[in-house]
Specification:
Distance between the termini: 16 Å
Shape: elongated
Order of helices and strands: EEHEHHHEEEHHEEH
Strand content: 25-35%
Strand order of the largest sheet: 1-2-7-8
Largest sheet: 4 strands, antiparallel
Structural class: alpha+beta
Amino acid sequence: MTKYINKKGQVLSIEADECAENPMREWDMFGTYYTFESRSFSPQEHKYSDSMEFLGSIIGDELVEKIHDKYSNTSDFLSDVLKRINKLGYIMFPISKFEHSNVVYSIGVSNGWDCGTVGLAFVTKEKLYKEFDKKRISSRMIERVKNIFESELNTYTQWCNGEVYGFTVSDSKGEVVDSCWGFYGSCQDTYLDEAVK
């Protein structure tokens, strides 16, 4: 906790927000985010036991198995599958997770000791047409979607790591006279420190 005291004896305290909303479950996110991890909940609920079952629900189980058997690595497999899925009305990207003390969710394929590809982020083309008021999806729009996914995963990462803050203002008698909560990001990123100086 960080405290600032002014000349009148008023105290501003910056604290971790212990009741922060899970942005993936309680906010209206642009994308849909499914992960398939054995020791962690998916950012958004789904009924699929693994990514193969989910992908199979879109392009068929047999085709997913056939494509899976064709490739020896996750990157090539997902590249092939996602090209096919993108032709069926979706924009979809793999989600990777790095975990070492804290976690970091991001868009892309990763493999390694503390990281791996754990899920999929997607949006329907129908939603894109409506949200952006477009009739055609350009490569620029796909890049924009990817950036939105990255931003939403970054906010989710902050929530997962407890990087959500709030402040209280107390008068000289110690009674709370104001408060505000739900600042996502490291304490320095939220500009709370600067706002009280």
